[in-house]
Specification:
This is Acetyl-CoA acetyltransferase. This protein is an alpha/beta fold and 374 residues long. 34% of the residues lie in helices and 18% in strands.
Amino acid sequence: MTVAIVGAAECDLGSTGLSILGLQTQAITRALADAGLSLSDVDGIATTSVARFSATSLAEHLGIQPAWTDSTFAGGSAYEMFVARAAQAIEAGQCHTVVISFASNQRSAKSRSLGGVYEAHTPEAQFEQPYGPLYPASYYAMAAGQYLHKYTAAREDLAEVAVAAREWALLNPQAFRYDAGPLTVDDVLGAKPLSTPLTVADCCLVTDGGGAIVLTSLERARDLPKPPVLVLGYGESTTNASMTAVDDLTVTGAVASGAAAFARAGLTPADVDVAQLYDSFTITVLLSLEALGFCAPGEAGDLVRSRSLPLNTSGGGLSYCHPGQLGVLLLVEAVRQLRGECGDRQVAGAEVALAHGTGGILSTHATVLLGVDR
């Protein structure tokens, strides 16, 4: 059985003053309306960061009793992981219509900090916290530093990621930086230092926001209002919790997750028309491009600079929205691109999209390939 995404939507973005459940409700009801479905059709829920038992709390709030739920917490990659689990559950007949959702009010609630949360029993608390790193910025800065040294890459290669993201954001009225104007490499390099070699312009936004997608069988999807977007392939990899467990910060689990997704889909990176890659920091994008096979190690800066691969067309976490976990919004944008709904930022003729989530400290990695229904 082929599974398809039939609905996709954002909740309000920016600084909303709304609760997490309020934003979740917006995202889910908007995605269901987009699909031509209602809450009574939903028998599967996948979500995180609502409460200790996230899917249970959300289901109760929505007034439904799902046959299948998933609350796997893996940071920003969880939503790409949810696509795989939801597809498997639908194929197995365990449920028929799944909503994958996330929302956060971290900006209006002022709940985001760089201090980090270290559980007392973990290696991170024993071997990392005493050095006072900014969490997670200093960790990604270490990866960036190793990358620049290993490949004798230029600091401008990192900056180009932020510049490209802003170019797309200026075409997206929903983007947090829509009215901010263009960004230059010099702007990024000259921004306030955060953790060497990164500046604040290398770092994702802190916003409220979120989104939802709706999945069902392709057979059912073809009777719904919008063109179905097929789930072609998926893969995941979990590599580490702490940085002390990583031998080479420039090689991530995206190598394995991407290889699995492409193999399952019977595709290669050359088949991808548009890519949505988690951009918590500029270095995350360079590492992911190389791990997923879009270019050779050390060449991602040149790839971004060439603008030959439409990348993070919403503006990404750097200029569009970053509510703490971006993964579901990567999927929303991928779906919209494949439907041809993106207006000024639409990639002409897009038929295959890749969404790749990264969670934690380059800890979890999940890749999804989506395609149009031919």
